[in-house]
Structures are given as structure tokens and as C-alpha cells.
Amino acid sequence: MSEDFYRGQAGLPFSSALRIYEPLEAFPERQREQLEAGGTRSGSRAAVEHAELLASLGRVTRPGGDPFPTGRTDMVRVTRAPGESGKHDAGPLLYCPSQLVIRAGLAANALMEGIHGSLAELLIPVDQREKHQVRIDRINAGHDSKRVHTRASTWGIPFSWFSLFQESDHKEVVEGNGRILTVRVWVPLTEALERARFAVANLALAAPDLDMLDDLTQLTEWLEMFHVGSMVELDYGAVADKVYPDESPLDVRLGIECLAEGDMTGAAAAYRRLASRWIPIRQLARAS
């Protein structure tokens, strides 16, 4: 199933995700039964990825021009917190709802703000956006929609995400047919927050005009919304085959430490390593 999924991604933009998995008690009581049922119904991780890919491709070709998800069959990813032994699959279950309706609305808003209005209306007709807003309003009335559990990025991973992870964190490398299909890295939320705050504090003093500081500040505020018993997952997606083994978390950390120490040469060297790794990936977005 996993190999079928990644073969199905051929020709599609590289997509990576930063996800929060929370314990069941972090969710409203009325939502817990849905999450447990959704986790059981969704099945294995590969099955979730495959189903979401098929559903997204189906929406693009859906009659009537409505590209938005309805939310009737929202997926749930399930993992476990590390147990006392340190094994990733030994602790209690944690849940990450896909929240496709809300995330699709946010993506549409970003699209409207990022390109010429007439082109955006051609891609997403006004009547379909209005219809989707009704779905979002319905969700807002029933659940705490502010806690969006997934952040997605195409054609590369934001450097700010790497500040949350270190080389020693638990990771899973998924391989098939002689290539890397994806890499997933996990860290407890409390550790991710500590690392993010460290980065923000040092950049605020050493490089307050750096764009990454704004990204890290927003990332820290996002992490603070979730239960302390949560896990943070970085899912490289298909881009892993182009960059892994990846030393980006190390380079980001060294770059921030060098800036804090006034070592501009070291900071520049860390950035060059990052740029040489990720700029070619981002250039693929403009390739014919």
C-alpha cells in the first residue's frame, strides 16, 4: 500500500507536513468517540495517505467545479507516545485529525491573497468558496477549530520547522523499490516548545530583522495551543528521497547559535549548507 501511494504521487508537487498528535482527553468530549472511530476506520498509516491522495485527486475532477472537501469522511492519523522504555510504539494512543475542511479554507484564502484575483476566481469560483464557508461555519459552531493540527508545505520544508528537531529524535525511514518514500521524525511537544523558545530568544537578540524570527514566533504560538502530552511529527513526504540523510536540523541550530555568539562566518556557512540543499528543491516548483 505505501509503495502504491508514493507511486501515485509521481508528477505531483513535493508535499511535507508538520503535525500535532494529542491524547484523547485534549479533545472535546463529543469529539472523542468520532476520533476513536475514525482512527479505527482509517486503518494503517499508508492507508490514510493513500485514501487522502485519492480523495484529493477526485475533488479536482469532481463535476460541478467544487474542489473542496465535504468533511463527511475526514481521516484520523494515530500514533503512540514513547513509553517508559523509550520505544515510540509503547505509550498511549495520540490522535491527529486531518481537519480537511478548515485547512482547505485556509489554503484557499492564502491562494486568493497570493495571486491575481481574476485568476484565483477562475481556479476557485466564488459560489464554491461561499458554499465551503458554510461548511467551515458549521464546524466552528461545533468544535474548537482554532487548533489546526497540521501545517503543510510544498516544494520544501520551512527552515523554522527544523528548529524543533534534533538528530537524536526518534525517526522512521520508509523505503521501497530502492528509494526513500518518506521520513518521519517525532519529538515530545514540551521539547519542541523548549527548542522553539530557545531559537526565538536568540534570534530576537542577534537578528531581530530576520524573517525566520517571525516564522518561529508564529510556530511557538501554534505549539502552545496543544496539550502538553502531545507529540510533534515532521513528515518529509516524497522530498525525502532528494535530501535524506538530512542535516538541516543541525545546520539551523548551528546557524542560530553562531548568530547568538556573533560568529557571522559560522552562521553564513550554515545558511550556505541549507541553501545548497533546499534551493534546488524549491526551483522545481518553476520547472517546466
Q: Notable features of this structure?
A:
alpha+beta, 12 helices, disordered N terminus
Summarize the model shown.
With 288 residues, the chain is an alpha+beta fold. The protein contains twelve helices and seven strands.
Explained architecture:
The chain has 288 residues and is of the alpha+beta class. The chain has one domain. 51% of the residues lie in helices and 16% in strands. The chain has helices at 2-8, 29-42, 45-60, 100-114, 117-123, 126-142, 159-162, 189-206, 211-223, 240-243, 248-260, 264-283; strands spanning 15-23, 76-80, 93-97, 150-154, 170-176, 179-188, 231-235. Strands 1, 2, 3, 4, 5, 6 and 7 form a 7-stranded antiparallel sheet that branches. α4 crosses α6 (126-142). The protein is globular and about 55 Å long. The protein starts with a helix and ends in a 5-residue tail after the last helix. The model is unreliable at 1-8 (pLDDT under 50).
SS element count, helices? 12
Largest sheet: 7 strands, antiparallel
Low-confidence stretches: 1-8
Q: What gyration radius follows from the Cα positions, in whole Å? A: 20 Å
Number of strands: 7
Mean residue pLDDT: 83
Order of helices and strands: HEHHEEHHHEHEEHHEHHH
Q: Tell the overall outline.
A: globular
Q: Helix/strand-derived class?
A: alpha+beta
Strand content: 15-25%
**What is the CA-CA span between the terminal residues?**
30 Å
Helicity, as a percent range = 40-55%
Organism: Arthrobacter cupressi
Domain DUF8083: 14-284
Protein name: DUF8083 domain-containing protein
Pfam family, one: DUF8083
